[in-house]
Amino acid sequence: MGTCLTFIVLAWTVVRLYSTNAAIGMSVFAVMIPPFAAMVANWNIDRRD
Fold it and tell me: CA triplet 34, 10, 25: central angle to 5 degrees?
């Protein structure tokens, strides 16, 4: 979550001054991180050894 928050804050405080499209891209990337992390964390949860 810290990475997501950092990306969004940087996108809308620094990057938007240079490129709005890049800021939007960073925001979209930041929104995709938590679901991807949850999928990776739960990838092999149903398997038993």
Answer: 60
More confident residue, 31 or 46: 31
Domain for residue 26, yes or no?
Answer: yes
pTM above 0.85, yes or no: no
In a domain, 25, yes or no: yes
pLDDT above 80: residue 45: no
| Beta-carbon contacts of residue 4 (< 8 Å; ≥ 6 apart) | 30, 31, 33, 34
